[in-house]
Specification:
Helix content is about 40%, strand content about 15%. Strands 1-11-8-7-5-6 form a six-stranded parallel beta sheet. The chain has a three-stranded parallel beta sheet with strand order 3-2-4, sandwiched between helices. Strands 9-10 form a two-stranded antiparallel ribbon. It has helices at about 5-25, 45-60, 75-85, 105-110, 125-130, 140-150, 170-180, 195-200, 245, 260-280, and strands spanning about 5, 35-40, 60-70, 90-95, 160-165, 185, 205, 225, 230, 240, 255. It folds into two domains: about 30-115, Leucine Dehydrogenase, chain A, domain 1 (Rossmann fold); about 140-265, Rossmann fold (3-Layer(aba) Sandwich), CATH 3.40.50.720. The structure holds guanine. Guanine (GUN) binds near residues 95, 119, 140, 168 and 265.
Length: about 290
């Protein structure tokens, strides 16, 4: 059996460091603040938003929640974002996705100030990720990088296969692995032979949202398996994109679902918000005391 990567424990150590630094910021009169916007009643989004607020409490941030009805117009949402962009107490702005159909996601993302874009979804931040000059790392891929680092696995020269090409995970994930000199393949729904691609992977990151897609016979002996998926199985139980049971004995390391990547995403959001608070207050702060 491969070793289980404990995302809960690793996320706790990231949050502990954020909390320590937050205490030092507070000594200088700065309280990091995160605004979280949710539009509508999507139950999964409500849980994510609640967890983000709880994490803010844990690390000592202020959190400002804006729960808007499903019927909110795009203009009203943009008005709120404009107000938050100008609000000095707010260092990070996160608009939980997905948004209702009548609201254009990219217009919303484009209106968040890149300096407060703690999701790293704004095209300016996406562009920076591409050239390896990042103010904010996108939370889920950054969390995955921490999990890989925790295993002591060297990425340089390794075959890295990312299954999924979303803007939120797959594409930035590929970029972060590439910056660490991995040889990166991105697979997607049109990939002809997914099994053959996955079987080459020393490091496999699954982020497609298809329950238990990756089976034991698709992975290489000794691979590091990272599961970003968050699905429900036949019995309504949470499961990932990787079939844990058939893969666990082939992996050297494997993340569980839940308790793997999920907690890391939130920890990295806290880290980004702290970075934003320091950056936005750098003239006021004595950085030698941080
Ligand atoms: N919906 C699912 N994941 C995310 C995320 O990381 N950020 C935001 N804003 N919405 C999401």
């Amino acid at each position: 059996m491969g070793q289980i990567i404990d995302g809960k424990m690793i996320s706790k150590s990231v949050k502990d460091k954020v909390r320590e630094q937050t205490e030092k910021l507070k000594e200088q009169g700065i309280v990091p603040g995160l605004a979280v916007i949710i539009v509508g009643e999507n139950p999964a989004s409500q849980i994510y938003v609640r967890n983000k607020q709880l994490a803010c409490e844990e690390v000592g941030f202020e959190s400002y929640k804006y729960a808007l009805p499903e019927s909110t117009t795009q203009a009203k949402l943009l008005e709120l974002i404009k107000k938050l962009n100008a609000d000095e107490r707010v260092n990070g702005i996160l608009c939980q996705l997905p948004l209702p159909e009548h609201i254009d996601e990219s217009t919303v993302i484009n209106n968040i100030s890149p300096k407060k874009d703690v999701d790293a979804f704004h095209p300016v931040n996406v562009g920076k990720i591409m050239i390896g000059d990042y103010s904010f790392l996108p939370c889920t891929p950054a969390g995955v990088m921490e999990l890989i680092a925790s295993t002591g696995t060297e990425i340089s020269g390794k075959e890295c296969v990312v299954v999924g090409r979303s803007n939120i995970v797959g594409k930035p994930m590929a970029m972060l692995l590439l910056h660490k000199s991995g040889t990166v393949t991105v697979c997607h729904s049109k990939t002809v032979d997914l099994k053959a691609q996955c079987k080459r992977a020393d490091i496999l990151v699954a982020a497609v949202g298809v329950k238990k897609l990756i089976k034991g016979d698709m992975v290489k002996q000794g691979a590091v398996l990272i599961d970003v998926g968050m699905n429900r199985d036949e019995n309504g139980k949470l499961c990932g994109d990787i079939d844990f049971e058939s893969c666990k004995d082939k992996a050297s390391y494997i993340t569980p679902v839940p308790g793997g990547v999920g907690p890391m995403t939130i920890a990295m959001l806290m880290k980004n918000t702290l970075t934003a608070a320091i950056e936005q207050n750098k003239e006021k702060l004595n950085v030698n005391n941080l």
